[in-house]
Fold each of these.
Amino acid sequence: MTFAGFERQDARTIWNFFRMLLRDRFMGSRLGAAWSVANPLLLLSIYTFVFAFIFKSRLPGSEPGLSYTIWLISGLGPWLAVAESLTSAANSIHGNAGIVKNLAIKAECLPIAAAMSGLIPLAVSFSFLVVLLIADGWAPSWHVLAIVPAGLALFGFVTGLGIALSALVTFFRDLGVALPSVLIIILFSTPILYPVTAVPRALQMLAELNPFYIAGQWIRVPLLDHALPPVWGLVWISVLAGATFWGSLLAFRRVKGYLPSAV
Amino acid sequence: MNKRQVYVRDLCKDFRLAGPFMRKKRVLNSLNFTISDGERIGIIGGNGAGKTTLLQIVAGISDPSSGIVQVDGQVTSIFSLGIGLRDDLTGRENIFIDGELQGYSRQETLRFVPDIIAFAELGEFIDRPVRNYSTGMKSRLAFSLLVHIDPEILVIDEALSVGDVRFSAKAQARMHELAARGRIVILVSHSMSAIRTMCTRCIWLDGGRIRMDGEPNEVTQAYVENVSQAREETLKKRVRRAPNAESMRPGFAIKSMQFILDAGEKISGEVLQSKEQVALIAEAEAPPGSGCRAVLEIDRIDGLKICISDSVESLPLLLAGSDGRISFKAEFGSLPLNIGLYQASLTLLHNAVPVARHRRSFEVVNPMPHRGGQAILVTQMAISSSRL
Amino acid sequence: MTDTAYAIIAQSLRKLLPLERASLFWVWLGRARDVPCLEVLKGVDLKVAKGEMIGVLGHNGAGKTTLLRTLAGIYPADSGSVAVNGDVGALFELGGFGNRHLTGRAFVRKYFLLFEVQKEQRVRLMREVEEFAELGDYFDQKILTYSTGMTARLYFAAATVIEREIYLIDEILSVGDEYFQAKSWSRLRERLAGGAAGILVTHDWSAVLKLCRTARILEDGEIVREGTADEVVRDYLKLPIPEPNGAEIIAEKSFSAVSGAPMHLEFDVVLHKDIEVEVSLSIEHLQFGAGWEIVLLNEYSSVASTRGCYRLRVELDRTPLSAGNYLVNIFLASPADPLTGQRETLHTRSWTYGNGLTMQVTGEERPDLTPFMTRWQQVAS
């Protein structure tokens, strides 16, 4: 059985790489794997503290406090996952030069496995979110099922970007250095920490096409508002995810043979 | 010019061990020594003796946990070659960067460049990015960068492996030159001959302590002797683990097997000396009156079959007495084996079928090793010459 | 031989390595076919039969590592073909996957994960690595606390614990102390005896003699020489045949002896001037794949000091060699300088120069190399 040039055994390779990357990540730190849980929690706390309690931001027509916090985390959590996936995938080839140079592997498995590392902060922030929601007296509705297709589309899109970045970073090291700043820019230009209505009218249209925003909405709205955002958004990000994944995989395979000598 | 000196008092260094507890391991334990101007020190010791740690502390790369380390003079250290090379820059650009790091002006560096390039023998590669170099080329460039240094205190770790035979000979020669130029040289090496030829003094580290400090010939000799004793210990351990006696048929067994000196004196342990008068004595058990044969096989530890000897070569049969015992002896005369680790395996055969076996590892040392090569046997041929 | 009899077949293998990393961007975009490249392999043809280990000798920069990486499937070939028949164990850049912050055990675990070792085997293989590397408590310490030798032991033990059909080896057999080297050699020989094939790429010619029957020389990306290991080594060394320097050895090309019987060799030495001459002699055994061993080596002894022709007799009351062909080397030199121990070479006959001598020992064919005399006695208990 093959899919997009991947065979069955590649799934196991990806899974092995995923486990290896997780182990490598926190190696040498005293608390080890505990950091993978602590990191997202710390970030969520600091963002919540700054926005909810220092800036006293609130949603139009509601009080600051728990509901804003829930709203913030429902958007920020997935973003942390995206940021983690992209950073990890971008460095996956260059940072694992030892493997790329010495092991006959399907190199594209590395960025894919690295992109999966976003699942950890995602799981952590969702658990945190559910705790807050239940504390707020929340009960789920069938709408939450919409998170699954949206999540998959987002994962496909992010993995595609990650594959592209992993190759580009090996040609242009500067890209790896610039990536954290770029991620911050994307975060603040996407209506995640503020409602889309806060965006100037002229740019609102553009903001609504932003795949990160749409994916965010498809997670946030079913969860908090028990409703679905416009369906065209889901179609749009699915198409975008497919195209990005496919395109970057093609491009990656064009340069794959050069990678061991370029890292 | 000031006096160069390395002054070390009560130097200790602890390493934190992996794991959640704050366990520590003492790597260096109260070291005291002073190295004065003009001395060339060799440092020897087994794995984990703390040689590398000591060098790192003297070079200022690592800090002592307690004690005083005072280094008067500028230290140049060579730990592993090629670490400092920038992959994206060409060989030539790397030479300039290195010059800057060593504190030379561009003018001064320009003077060295032709020397370095000539020494490295990289041809057109000198203007290509280092990334495209082979491992050997990298170490050649890295080594060549050392060509122009004028060290006050030179610290060198391990034998430098720098590529092929021809270059490594050149590199060795340059190393000697460097060592001769250095006001103080501290060299860690596994090569006793390098220590003997290059150093004026030798420190033997053992488990983080100074075991011996003195004249290189004496210290290295003591060290080599100690290493063979230590090997005997590990050998003993390994022998204990291996099934060294087995009986393939009930009633037959080899009870003991031991090396003795011809004088009858038992040898303690498993270390023999080349050219010693040695014999192997063994005691076996067999049904009273039965006749057996014994075969002794000697293998080198890497699997080379050295010698097989069958008792029928000098005896008809070994006969078990009425008490069911056979004692016998295999004499080697002057032991012809040279330095090495060996295994002796003695098999008892009854009617040409192996019935019992006994194994024993042993080491042979040679206090007077041959220069210029190591043969399997120490046997010397008699050479006589007559005028025609 | 049919193609299935080979473990590795490489045909007109070419490999280009890009010079400029940034130029790959255009390839990535699909806008360029060519990037400025360096041709590292220029059409290499190589066949390795199953169960055979061949040596590839080359100086630095000849393309040795690139050749191994291409054969291992890490680099795709730019043209030509590679067919590898069996699973490959790559013994180069040992520890390249590692990270010095890992403990020895964690490194091996990572290694097993990367090589997809079955769960059921991991415990057993882990124990094997632990035993082979003999690191003791250090096995659970970080690699960065290891000495060079210990690190090498760990990497070698991990890399060779899994049995493979094909080994690609790059300069690794010079690791660790004498004892560990012997162990490493015997492990490799064990693997080869088990039917494995492979390529040993190195500049260490003695390693080639120890492990390989045939060899090649790789020079500037091309195989320039192919032959039996000793011929190729001789070509690789390119030692100039020593000219007699005041003294000369005159000998037949071949000696003979009988296993276990008295040995008696004769040759002549001519002194062209009044000069003190000493002679040394070695008898070596070269069995490809099994090893290159110096069996007997004499200390220098005096020949003569005045101009003239001398006959030398070499005697041993019993030839401690089993039947087979041996190499005889003869060295003439001045006496050692009492201060430096250096000698001036006057003339040499040695196989490494291609002017060596041989000795044929007849008698019983035996599995042991040096059957020395042992006298058995039954003693009263």
Amino acid sequence: MTHVETNTSSPVHAKSSARGERLLEVRDLSVSFNDGNDWFEVLNKVSFDVKPGETVGVVGESGCGKSLTALSILGLLPRRGCRRTGQILFDGGDLVAFGEGDMRKVRGRKIGMIFQEPMSALDPVFTVGYQITETVRAHFKVSSREAHERAVAALAAVGIPSPSNCAAMYPMSLSGGMRQRVMIAMALVCEPQLLIADEPTTALDVTIQAQIMDLLEELSQRTGTALLFITHNLGLVAESCSRMLTMYAGQVVENGPVDEILSRPLHPYTAGLLGSLPQAKHRKSKLPSIPGRVPSPRDMPAGCRFAPRCTYVEAGCRMSQQLVGHGARHARCWRSDTLVLPGAAV
Amino acid sequence: MSDILTVENLGIGFPARQRHQVIKAVDGVDFRVAQGETFGVIGESGSGKSTLGRCIVCLVRPSSGRILHDGADPFALGAGELRQHRRTFQIIFQDPNAALDPRMTILDSVREPLDVARIGTAQERRRRALTMLDRVALSLELANRYPHEISGGQKQRANIARALVLEPRLIVCDEVVAALDVSIQADMLNLFAELQREFSLTYVFISHDLRVVAHVSDRVAVMYFGKLVELGPAQAIMAAPQHPYTQALLSAEPEPIPAHLRTKERVILKGEIPSALEPPSGCRFHTRCPLAVAECSARVPEWRELSPGHFAACHFAGKSAAVPATASPV
């Protein structure tokens, strides 16, 4: 463990408790791994919430803890050499305290999951229909015929042409876009309240990506499923999410409504991510990039973790940073009140 | 400016599993690339853009048509001459991990092309490799490391150094930034631009990312299912795409801007790229085209010049309001 924050109270939830019900509340979630000698912290006091039916985006570079946050919520971290503290409040229980048996009733039933690479998430030796049916029968006491009917209905719901033929096919005979549809069908067949999608379209072409995003939006509207959407593509967040979190080096560094963040980010890291996107209107110009790279969890900078890469760094940045509230928004930067950062270029 | 690369009616076929069938990965492609230009190629997976790139550097033989380097056919050269010639036409691939030998240090990997080409003494080769590594901002300390000890962005820099060390004139960049995070991607695109000015390089920049292609390219070609569907100046393609496929591609690209600033309308294409064994009749895009009419499946559209230097292959491109700039979805 290299970094200890002094103030344990998280300002994120101090004010927001009055606003409507919440489906998922993550409170001060920290995760540490042991490499045999030492514990090092990979998630540091991550707090956020998701309201029923809402779509929340999580952005950040690789190695910032986005996927780890998703795996922690689902209890899919290794049991040995891993420590999880804080709370994950979902459906009246704290998932951190749940045993494996209880988690199994949540996973796939109440919280669905879609991974980036559909081919590695599907079993190549069973038909698509069998795999969806298996999910249904794991959670509901239904006959195999009924389960199969539900599987076919789920395939139809995700826009697969001739779903009963598809159910008899093996994953290898489907295209990437079709496999991702199958994954979505499998994740939604039990009608979960929350769907966690980790880079669901990264392996797909843009035209297929547009189809899948459209489908996710439509399904979440129709069934009221909330969506936690993990991606490195800020464009997708802009087009499909209402709120977003920026993660950096295992911490949430900014959160708030998407449109406000894009217009005027409060954290230099969010601004840096937005600025480094190539824009057709500024052809051939030099792109502003974020120098350096994400620090390793074994070697976290003291104080603000982004300071070594930040263009706006000052002496005060050596202090440990807290999430500072600005109405519905928060940023982990002590200068967020005064800094005027460039937003999305139009 | 003279043309460093000419692609004439190029066709590349691969035998299918059933031996009598041929998969045409590239089918009748024509274009020229001028010295010092950046020529962008956009297309989805399966459109044949990588096969085209490999053919440009003589890694795949054309089955019909031809490619010319400075007006001469490289495939007419003998094996020894071709090896010599290859030095000036290099390619950089998408996956920086797969392109470096895990058992060689970065310095050795960058020096290897010089060793193969037997240029200078061992001392000189080492010095040249180090100079090139320095140019792509890799320190001496990193030069002595193995690929698994450095980051993805650094590996891609090493690959660039490796391609540049033989002083090529043209480099095919095949999805070179696709595997990198946005901030690293920006660094890399800046580096490509600097190197182009410094070494007067010509790039053929292949990517599925419109944003990236439009940023770096002078001219852009849009490929669908083995054929070019549109070709023109990057600005014209981005501002006023003429082919419905280009329009759909542009509209599918999500924009990181707040909702109230968003103007474009989305065209969501139905279906996927058809099977390579049974190309659709007529216009190959008609199975997914929101504007398709009976004529489209019957007749192959001509490759027409709509305005100087701007070509498209669509029956309706540039004709009245049939293809408005922002086509509305069906």
